[in-house]
Amino acid sequence: MESVDVVVIGAGFAGLIAARELGAAGLSVVVLEARDRVGGRTWTDRRFGHDLELGGTWVHWVQPHTWAEMTRYGRDIERSPSAEEAYWRDADGTARTGTIAAFMAVIADGQQGIIDDVGTAIPRGVDPTSGGIAELDALTVQDRIDALGLAPEARAANESVWVGHVNAPLDQVGLSSALRWVAATGGHWQLMHEASATYRVVGGMSAFTAEIARDVRGDVRLGATVAAVTQVAGGADAGAVVELVDGSRIRARRVVSTLPANALSTIAFDPPLPEAWRRLGEERVASRGTKAWIRARGHVPRFFAYASQHDPLSVLKAEFYGSDDDGEYTLLVAFGPDHTRLDLDDVAAVQAAVDAFRPGIEVTAATGHDWMTDPLSQNTWMTHRPGQLTRYLADLQRPHGAVHFATTDNADLWGGFVDGAIESGLREARRIAAALA
Ligand SMILES: Cc1cc2nc3c(=O)[nH]c(=O)nc-3n(C[C@H](O)[C@H](O)[C@H](O)COP(=O)(O)OP(=O)(O)OC[C@H]3O[C@@H](n4cnc5c(N)ncnc54)[C@H](O)[C@@H]3O)c2cc1C
After folding, report:
1. Terminus-to-terminus CA distance in the chain, angstroms?
2. Would you list the domain boundaries of the chain?
3. Which CATH number, 3.30.465.10, 3.90.660.10, 3.40.50.300, 3.30.450.40, labels domain 85-197?
4. 0.95 surpassed by complex ipTM
5. How far is ligand 1, taken at its centre, from the CA of residue 65, in Å?
6. pLDDT for res 415
7. Of 85, 165, 192, 345, which residue has the fewest beta carbons closer than 10 angstroms?
8. Residue to mutate (ligand 1; options 42, 245, 290, 293; most atoms within 8 A of CB)
9. CA 72 to chain centre
């Protein structure tokens, strides 16, 4: 049987960073990735004549782990187009349109109100469970908005902004998910908005992860799906045997799982997963949305639009412009709170979803990737249900014998983001290198 120091399961950001660090520490490493590509929930694919990000896209210099990798690999950023017009809806569904400044004036008090106690709830973003969050963690984002007593238009607009951030209906998402990201931006909600949806990586996420993969001193095996991890007790032989779906087996002194929480039960662990992972996998995390790329006829002025959390699409903005044999076109990016509400192959349904909050656009095609039904992810960017942050995070970070867990889903600072994935990969690589030294 093949034998290595460490098997890393998964070649997303967490797995690639962990493998690179472990190899650099002089350990023999094999990365097993089920897909035919690296990058996991980041994926740049050529569609509609453009390199489109189907998963994670936006990065920012306030994301320290991401930014260190950007510097290391000499990656630049470019700004997504700034909007000239804003569209939103009143509580009764009446369409509103105006300048960006007018929209910001509608949401400003509510946005501040939602996160006003962040300084006491999560005083240090790098330690998200240490403050008063424990008493607040039973609340949903919806509970907090309901308690603010906002005027109907402001309430509707604030809800629509947050459903865009958390990628699920607001009564499903813990307030902690809002507070921890704002804690990561020093308590400033405006900076959190900028950090999470403004600057993309020049050349695309897939080129970025391919570059990290090239730095791994060890094999990165694609099409290698892990079926089981069996720990071996005792003495010099302690470790685990990793079995692939084709029946092949690798013995390792340590194993790093980078599977998202919702997908972890696809691997048979012996001994079984610790309780925190098992329970989180049963409850599932909150995020369950969709990301869509929509091709529209003609040149649509730069805009962003917000519908409500009850619509199939709740956020829409212009991202790219181009022209081909069919004339000028605009590519729009959209997000919705529930992936089951819209079939992106059904152009008429996509048209109706767009008409509901940004009239005057002719949709000619739509595309995307359903990360929720993808068995290897079963999630988009992770947001917690109420209580999950304080109930589980500490336990999720603990190694289980020879098995370590590195995933954005158990990160401290930017949990759910690329930054959190990198943080978790660095953390587990450091622990393993110290243990095996
Ligand atoms: C639509 C969308 C938009 C997003 N937008 C942003 C954004 O703008 N900015 C941002 O920072 N983040 C964003 N994110 C989140 C970000 O992409 C993720 O947090 C990050 O990529 C997760 O990295 P990871 O390594 O923890 O997990 P993953 O990338 O999910 O890696 C896990 C890997 O394990 C593999 N795997 C699963 N099961 C097995 C198995 N049995 N055997 C072998 N391999 C297996 C998977 O194929 C995958 O490659 C977005 C995510 C989505 C889906």
Report:
1. 23
2. 2-42+204-285+382-436, 85-197
3. 3.90.660.10
4. yes
5. 16
6. 98
7. 345
8. 42
9. 22
